[in-house]
């Protein structure tokens, strides 16, 4: 029966999200074409700058819309009047919940992939454009991009293992965060479902409040991790170790610097991942319990 | 074994008992009226029976099982309010029911819809309140369930539709199934009832067959109700 | 079904069925609808209809043929007897009502004669 429930939940999300994705990728294609076609370096630079901000809005917009849509589905289908139908279906109450969380995660994942495509297209175009720009007289942009590429290839040498760990953890974090929103929001709904009035408001308020607090905690902890690890690695002189890469000329120093950066990022990912994983799992378990044993739909 | 068994069923909200120690057996093949004023506990009793509420104490058993996927498969519930997604079309919610309930008869549903003049392609959002109620009724009556819980099925509906609803209940009658109709419009349903249950302040005040009530009191169930529940 | 009739529903159904038989709607030997169809026609509970039909079967007005259904008796004497009984009780009722408004049997008969003209 879980499969059946998921079929309908997926169908609901498929009413709008694919259109958003289409719009997003279309916009990205537009920007990519712009990059490929324009040869004037200054125009390209200004255009890229503007596109960058629009991009953030677009990607953020798709993320927010998917989240909102998913939250609406979770609340409406389980805890509004529709719940009277959903929870009298011949299925385990827990399956209803699990279907929502799984479909929410799947669509969040899709949104992530779309965002990646949206970003990859113009960046790919930019990389492709570099030699062309060097050929033309706009040396500055081409050189900038080329030096960046060079810097990265030098720095990452010798740090391959760390890079792999970093990428794997990133993927793991992406997966966890895909489950985080639907699981945690379901939890917020489940703990407020006995309230008679402003139930939806309460669940959303708790969700946003906690998410925001979480964001703050994560930001602060990343800063602390940064400071701490620099201190740990370099002692009192730690802060002097944070040098902009432009001042590093030695390849081994560059490699060490990249290694340090990767260490810090890996620790960040572990901390964030752990926090989110714990919240996700606890939310899932508690919501399941409430919905299976203590359902009181008013 | 009765098809519905209530044993000391209690539901308390914030120190107020909405249901207080209900003990009742309902055999199969009966059309039962759950009669009481607003706030007497009718809806609470029904919601506990279909699994939307958890008891504070006591039990309810449908066909020998506690409310769960097994009982829900053989229980048909018609709530007072609309519980359908507004964005769905009539035919898509018919398919939805058919998909989840093995005892759902699609042909019967479409036949009833056409008799009521409801276009299956319409979205639920575009239908009037009365039409939506009819759609819900069709969905419930197209099921071959063992227990039907109808919460105020005729309250918000015009007299012609009321007759249609009551005739549908009669037509659907099976000696293996029971229908529980909760209502405060007693004289409309009286002739259809096998048994009448009077409920007040969460407690059963009277439970007897309609015929017995008439023979013993010399009054119609409606008259007796007015007497018992006089303000 | 009369809303203010306080007699049990099955009793009222028995009345209605007698009327239908005596008025010729269901003549002797006529096949009756199934319990379910009857219930639907009368807007009454099938169990109640069954109870009424059982009563009438005991009285001999109806008989059941196992595979074909229920039929009105072909014995005309049973029907005539019922007609006579019902006529009597209606008449008694009529005179009781007349008496309640102060008209004795004599005066009642005069009114009947007048109406006949």
- Counting H and I runs of at least 4 residues, what is the number of helices of chain C? 5
Tally of individual domains of chain C:
2
Low-pLDDT residue intervals, each spanning 5 or more residues of chain C: none
The CATH superfamily title of the largest domain in chain C: Winged helix-like DNA-binding domain superfamily/Winged helix DNA-binding domain
Major beta-sheet overview of chain C: 2 strands, antiparallel
**For the residues shown, what is the average pLDDT of chain C?**
88
CATH topology of the largest domain in chain C: Arc Repressor Mutant, subunit A
Span between termini of chain B: 37 Å
Q: Structural class given helices, strands, pairing of chain C?
A: mainly alpha
Q: What is the percent of helical residues of chain B?
A: 25-40%
Q: Determine the fraction of residues in helical runs of chain C and give it as a percent range.
A: 55-70%
Topology of chain C as a string of helices (H) and strands (E): HHHEEHH
Shape of chain B: globular
Going across the major beta sheet of chain C, what is the strand order? 1-2
Give the oligomeric state of the chains in this entry, treating copies of one chain as homo and distinct chains as hetero.
heterotrimer
Radius of gyration of chain C: 17 Å
Largest interchain contact: A-B, 23 and 24 residues
- Give the neighbour order of strands across the main sheet of chain B: 5-6-7-3-8-9
Enumerate the spans of chain B where pLDDT stays under 50 for 5 or more consecutive residues.
none
């Amino acid at each position: 029966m879980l499969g059946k429930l998921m079929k309908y939940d997926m169908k609901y999300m498929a009413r709008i999200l694919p259109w958003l994705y289409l719009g997003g990728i279309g916009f990205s294609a537009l920007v990519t074409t712009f990059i490929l076609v324009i040869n004037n370096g200054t125009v390209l630079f200004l255009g890229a700058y503007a596109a960058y901000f629009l991009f953030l809005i677009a990607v953020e917009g798709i993320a927010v819309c998917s989240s909102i849509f998913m939250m609406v589905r979770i609340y409406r289908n389980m805890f509004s009047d529709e719940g009277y139908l959903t929870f009298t279906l011949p299925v385990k109450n827990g399956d209803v919940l699990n279907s929502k969380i799984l479909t929410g995660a799947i669509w969040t994942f899709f949104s992530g992939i779309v965002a990646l495509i949206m970003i990859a297209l113009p960046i790919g175009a930019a990389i492709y454009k570099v030699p062309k720009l060097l050929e033309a007289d706009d040396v500055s942009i081409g050189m900038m991009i080329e030096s960046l590429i060079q810097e990265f290839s030098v720095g990452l040498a010798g740090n391959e293992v760390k890079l792999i760990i970093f990428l794997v953890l990133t993927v793991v974090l992406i997966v966890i965060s895909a489950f985080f929103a639907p699981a945690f929001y379901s939890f917020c709904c489940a703990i407020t479902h006995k309230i008679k009035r402003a139930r939806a408001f309460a669940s959303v308020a708790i969700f946003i409040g906690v998410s925001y607090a979480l964001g703050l905690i994560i930001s602060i902890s990343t800063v602390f991790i940064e400071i701490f690890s620099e201190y740990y690695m370099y002692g009192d002189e730690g802060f002097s170790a944070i040098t902009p890469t432009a001042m590093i000329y030695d390849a081994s120093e560059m490699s060490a610097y990249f290694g340090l950066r990767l260490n810090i990022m890996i620790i960040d990912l572990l901390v964030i991942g752990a926090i989110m994983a714990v919240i996700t799992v606890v939310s899932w378990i508690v919501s399941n319990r409430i919905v299976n044993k203590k359902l009181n739909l008013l | 074994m009765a098809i519905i068994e209530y044993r000391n069923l209690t539901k308390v909200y914030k120190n107020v008992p909405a249901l207080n120690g209900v003990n009742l057996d309902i055999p199969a093949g009966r059309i039962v009226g759950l009669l009481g004023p607003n706030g007497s506990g009718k809806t609470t009793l029904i919601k506990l029976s279909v699994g939307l509420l958890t008891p504070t104490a006591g039990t309810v058993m449908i066909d020998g099982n506690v409310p769960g996927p097994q009982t829900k498969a053989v229980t048909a519930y018609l709530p007072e309010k609309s519980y359908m997604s507004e964005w769905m079309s009539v035919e898509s919610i018919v398919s939805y029911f058919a998909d989840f309930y093995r005892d759902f008869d699609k042909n019967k549903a479409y036949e009833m819809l056409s008799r009521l003049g409801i276009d299956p392609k319409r979205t639920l959002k575009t239908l009037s309140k009365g039409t939506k109620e009819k759609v819900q009724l069709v969905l419930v009556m197209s099921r071959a369930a063992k227990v039907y819980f109808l919460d105020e099925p005729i309250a918000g509906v015009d007299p012609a539709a009321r007759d249609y609803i009551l005739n549908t209940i009669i037509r659907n009658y099976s000696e293996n199934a029971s229908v529980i109709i909760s209502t405060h419009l007693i004289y409309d349903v009286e002739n259809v009832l096998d048994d009448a249950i009077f409920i007040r302040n969460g407690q059963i005040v009277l439970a007897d067959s309609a015929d017995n009530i008439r023979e013993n009191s010399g009054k119609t169930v409606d008259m007796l109700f007015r007497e018992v529940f006089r303000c | 079904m009369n809303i203010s009739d306080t007699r049990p529903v099955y009793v009222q159904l028995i009345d209605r069925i007698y009327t239908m038989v005596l008025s010729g709607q269901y003549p002797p030997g006529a096949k009756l609808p199934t319990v379910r169809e009857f219930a639907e026609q009368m807007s009454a509970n099938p169990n109640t209809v069954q109870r009424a039909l059982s009563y009438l079967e005991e009285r001999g007005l109806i008989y059941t043929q196992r595979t074909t259904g229920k039929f009105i008796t072909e014995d005309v004497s049973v029907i005539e007897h019922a007609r006579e009984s019902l006529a009597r009780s209606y008449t008694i009722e009529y005179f009781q009502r007349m008496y309640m408004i102060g008209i004795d049997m004599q005066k009642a008969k005069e009114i009947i004669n007048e109406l006949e003209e």
